[in-house]
Amino acid sequence: AGGRRRLIAGNWKMNLDHFEALTLVQKLDWALRDAKVDLDAVEVAVLPPFTDIRSVQTLVQGDKLALSYGAQDLSAHDSGAYTGEVSGQFLRRLGCEYVLVGHSERREHHGEDDALVRSKILAAVRHELAPVLCVGEGLESRQSGDHVAVVLAQLDAALEGLGADDVPGLVLAYEPVWAIGTGETAGPEEAGEMATALRGRLETLLGAPAAQATRILYGGSVKAESVAEIVAVPDVDGALVGGASLDPAGFASLITAAH
Ligand code: PEP
What positions does UniProt annotate as the active site of this protein (predicted)? Predict the structure, then answer.
């Protein structure tokens, strides 16, 4: 939509053993070739656990696979005494293009607040990674009807004080928390309402050219059967896919249906 290249990104979360991870990338590549998916029209990215990224890099770069890859999180810091953290610099050196920032599972289980999310966006940009900023409301705010205000407030806080030049490559992912891993999914109208509101707010925050260039993904129980109607929504430019990205044939049919 709007001249933006579609993006389908697979968030593996903490799944697959090392062998399964490599097999998935190879089989996905074969399946996409087999289905003659036009990867100029739709970009495909995988987001493995940190421990698989080096091997994914070897496969993608060695065999020249037309897949992008990235990480599910990064440290807000660049180096130093931060035990257990992984810096944007490390990820960039492994050839990552993307990094999720503020996924709802990080916000919920690891206490990530908006200020930390903002710092992580800046850390990503410092190392030439495209941050995929995840925002989304919980069930209560969807039910009470303040979901748009809640999600726009997350966007405001994550981009506070920043301009278009501060966040090159930014991608947004609208992921209603009640739809992640639940089998529940927002319909095209709900996804469209939020994507349009997000693009409008991006225009205010970053200006019209950046707002038009930013890809806005939908995520939350997206399946091969549901992806086409979601990506047909004018302001939705792709999908962030969890569970349905773990099976190569299934993910390939989802991507085929999305392009
Ligand atoms: C996700 O983790 O970003 C996600 C959307 O998961 P699922 O597709 O499994 O709901």
Answer: 103 (electrophile), 175 (proton acceptor)
CB–CB of 217/172 below 8 Å? yes
* Structural domains in the chain (count): 1
Each residue's pLDDT tens digit, 106-160: 999 999 999 999 999 999 999 999 999 999 999 999 999 999 999 999 999 999 9
Predicted-complex ipTM score: 0.97
Provide the pLDDT for residue 1.
Answer: 62
Residue 145, SS3?
Answer: coil
Ligand 1, CB cutoff 6 Å, lining residues: 11, 13, 175, 180-181, 219-222, 240-244
The DSSP line for 218-250 is EESS--TTTHHHHHTSTT--EEEESGGGSSHHH
Q: Are 221 and 183 in contact (CB under 8 A)?
A: yes
Residue 203 lies in a domain: yes
Query: Is residue 17 included in any domain, yes or no?
Result: yes
Token couple for 195:
């994507």
Nearest to 8 by CA among 41, 51, 50: 41
- Active site annotation includes 103: yes
Report if residue 14 sits inside a domain: yes
* pTM score: 0.97
Output the CA 223–ligand 1 centroid distance in Å: 10
Name the 3-class secondary structure at 153: helix
| Any domain includes 243 | yes
**Residues contacting residue 83 through CB under 8 Å, at least 6 positions apart:** none
Give, using CA atoms, the residue closest to atom 4 of ligand 1: 242
The mean per-residue pLDDT over the stretch 37-60 comes to 96
Assess whether 193 carries a catalytic annotation. Answer: no
CATH code where residue 215 lies: 3.20.20.70
**Catalytic one of 43, 105, 175, 190:** 175
The range of the structural domain enclosing residue 10 comes to 6-257
